[in-house]
Structure to design on (392 residues):
């Protein structure tokens, strides 16, 4: 495993290399596009996954045969806003989300976020965070919609403090529950660390994620949300410890992964799962072709879990792509996935923004100001129906 990781690191180049940027953004799109085939399925035989992926090698199918979903549509808005504003601008990003939805509403948006996006399109809206806060009687959504589009924040800001703040603020435009936006923070941190080559040492990578999330979840708001939803006091930390436990087992079944981590639309049931997929597939697996590289194994394994396959594969793809680099991405997959070439181009532009940030030339807030945490006041209660809706 150590040798395989070393070879992957050599192929991807050094920390924050252009190859890693390209790999992260392109593999995220691929995970979304190829994952759409199995979204919502309770059981996905590995044979079906491998057949689906092998079909991508058929050049007669042409470009753009696999369409991206709302995952990529919103991530593209994040990228364009960060590049246009040279930093995080919540007003600009909110407008882009609303416009993107109005132009292409059939991308698979959940009913909850549609309500928010329609309100964000109002020219009279003064607080772009208010529509998300108003959802579910002020309790907000805890779905993975913020996490699925979080990778670009890790590619724009070299400072992990900026990555965390901006991922949180970007997610809160649609998901104001801490179990929603903290999932976005975790996903962005995982991509950030992978970009630095941290996955070369998987156990240390997990320790750093847990340490970071201990701080992120160390506030009363998170504890209150966790109590309401009957989760552990620090839900994401608890899930990351489960990831570590699964990593230590000699054999882990797909059923065990789903039982321990989940495969659903809640951020808590998908972001840690995506992280596990990457780490589990660092080495060859009996159920996967011997000629598959680590990124291919990661995408295939993500799909075999069923459930929210496009989003889990999208998030796992971003983390794995940042680790292995663009050289690990099959060209046949890129040709078959809508938006992959645009993602490749934008990765280079994001790296330029990243480097300017390193030189102190870019702010991480609106214009030149830093991201600030908006005050939130939310009542607390939940029932079974609302738990499902809030996870959209």
């Amino acid at each position: 495993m150590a040798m395989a990781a070393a070879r992957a690191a050599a192929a991807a180049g050094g920390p924050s290399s252009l190859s890693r940027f390209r790999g992260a953004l392109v593999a995220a799109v691929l995970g979304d596009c190829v994952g759409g085939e199995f979204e919502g399925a309770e059981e996905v035989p590995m044979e079906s996954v491998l057949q689906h992926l092998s079909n991508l090698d058929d050049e007669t199918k042409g470009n753009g045969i696999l369409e991206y979903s709302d995952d990529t549509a919103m991530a593209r808005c994040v990228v364009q806003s960060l590049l246009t504003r040279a930093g995080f601008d919540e007003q600009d990003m909110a407008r882009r989300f609303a416009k993107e939805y109005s132009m292409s509403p059939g991308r698979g948006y959940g009913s909850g976020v549609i309500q928010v996006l329609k309100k964000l399109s109002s020219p009279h809206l003064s607080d772009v965070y208010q529509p998300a806060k108003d959802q579910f009687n002020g309790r907000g959504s805890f779905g993975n919609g913020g996490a699925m589009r979080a990778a670009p924040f890790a590619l724009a800001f070299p400072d992990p403090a900026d990555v965390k703040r901006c991922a949180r603020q970007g997610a809160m435009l649609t998901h104001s529950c801490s179990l929603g936006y903290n999932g976005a923070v975790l996903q962005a941190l995982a991509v950030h660390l992978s970009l630095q080559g941290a996955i070369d040492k998987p156990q240390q990578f997990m320790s750093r994620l847990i340490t970071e999330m201990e701080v992120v979840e160390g506030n009363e708001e998170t504890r209150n949300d966790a109590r309401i939803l009957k989760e552990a006091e620090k839900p994401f930390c608890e899930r990351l410890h489960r990831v570590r436990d699964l990593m230590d087992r000699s054999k882990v079944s797909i059923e065990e992964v789903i039982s321990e981590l989940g495969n659903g639309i809640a951020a808590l049931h998908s972001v840690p799962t995506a992280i596990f997929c990457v780490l589990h597939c660092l080495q060859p697996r009996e159920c996967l072709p011997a000629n598959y590289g680590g990124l291919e194994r990661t995408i295939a394994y993500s799909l075999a879990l069923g459930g929210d396959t496009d989003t889990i594969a999208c998030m796992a793809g971003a983390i794995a792509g940042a680790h292995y680099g663009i050289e690990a991405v099959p060209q046949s997959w890129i040709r078959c996935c809508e938006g992959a070439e645009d993602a490749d181009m934008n990765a280079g532009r994001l790296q330029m923004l990243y480097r300017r940030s390193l030189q102190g030339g870019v702010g991480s807030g609106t214009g030149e100001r830093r991201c600030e945490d908006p005050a939130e006041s939310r009542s607390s209660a939940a029932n079974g129906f609302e738990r499902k809706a809030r996870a959209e």
